[in-house]
Write a structure and sequence with these properties.
Layout lengths: L1 H16 L1 H10 L3 E6 L4 H14 L1 E2 L2 H9 L10 E8 L8 H6 L5 E4 L21 H5 L3 H10 L16 H7 L4 E4 L12 H19 L5 E3 L7 H10 L3 E3 L18 E2 L6 H8 L2 H11 L1
Parallel strand pairs: 1-3, 1-8, 2-3, 3-4, 4-5, 6-7
Length: about 290
């Protein structure tokens, strides 16, 4: 509890120091910033979206892609910000009216074999006795085996829904850009060639069927990818892919390695604003280099 309070206090202190505004001026002005959430707490969502609307030019990922493909990125205004959400969690539905109110079109990346089911996200049901971080480094089949030993199977119901339903997606689609985050959210780099291809191309086909149009963007689950995944994403028909690698984007950024900035847990306004500027990522980069 003390650590949570201290963390919150530090982000609030940074916010009122206005350091994040300096970082915004120095690094974001002529670049495109893509942030990613999983959840955004509805109790602070309006405050966050109101802030973004006033301090950034919010554009959709599709608009950015179209501009990039035309080599007209210089026509974009300063301080462009793109909002993305990974996983397609059911709580995202509660934000729909706010997206509509602020005329924001975020991109939500869906796990196409988890949405509209009572299947769960594997890391939320890890009772294997092995830490989730260690499980991420196991070969895909071994990870599935360890999870199944403790009672969790990726293709079976857990008895309750964790992801968006088809009905919710239908209601949201006018205000939300739905794209692909694989089928079951594996760690793709631990998969065999066939498994990785099935997750990437299969989710493309799933989403095409759900939305009635081909998806154009892929989000690497857990941010893990290699040249093999980049190749499969291209081959499957996507036009771009986003990572979890810190940084901003410009006319030279690889479209299949678009950089994003983590917005954190999505439950603290000051943390979200500070992180969105890129300040925390910049500090981590400096520490890593030194």
């Amino acid at each position: 509890m003390k650590l949570i309070f201290l963390r919150s206090f530090l982000f609030k202190l940074i916010y009122y120091s206005h350091i994040h505004k300096l970082i915004k001026t120095l690094f974001q002005r002529n670049r495109i910033t893509i942030i990613y959430f999983h959840n955004l707490d509805e109790t602070i969502a309006e405050k966050c979206l109101n802030y973004f609307s006033k301090c950034y030019t919010i554009i959709s990922l599709k608009h950015f892609l179209d501009i990039r493909l035309k080599n007209e990125i210089n026509k974009l205004p300063d301080n462009c910000l793109i909002l993305t959400f990974d996983d397609g969690l059911m709580n995202n539905f509660k934000l729909t009216q706010l997206f509509r109110k602020y005329e924001i079109v975020p991109t939500i990346y869906l796990c196409t074999q988890i949405i509209d089911t009572n299947r769960g996200f594997w890391w939320k049901h890890n009772y294997s006795g092995i830490s989730t971080e260690k499980l991420k480094f196991l070969k895909h089949d071994e990870r599935i085996y360890q999870l199944s030993k403790s009672g969790f199977k990726i293709d079976q119901s857990i008895g309750q829904r964790e992801s968006l339903s088809q009905s919710e997606i239908t209601k949201m689609r006018k205000w939300v850009d739905f794209q692909s985050h694989s089928r079951f959210h594996p760690i793709l780099t631990t998969c065999s060639d066939n498994q990785s291809w099935d997750e990437i191309s299969g989710s493309f086909n799933d989403l095409f069927s759900i939305m009635g149009k081909p998806p154009y963007s892929f989000s690497y689950p857990n941010g893990n990818y290699s040249n093999r995944e980049k190749y499969f994403v291209r081959k499957a028909g996507y036009q771009c892919a986003v990572t979890t690698e810190y940084g901003y984007n410009d006319a030279t950024t690889d479209l299949f390695q678009l950089k994003r900035i983590s917005a954190g847990s999505g439950s603290n306004f000051y943390e979200i604003v500070v992180r969105t500027s890129g300040l925390i990522g910049l500090i981590k980069t400096i520490i890593k280099i030194s």
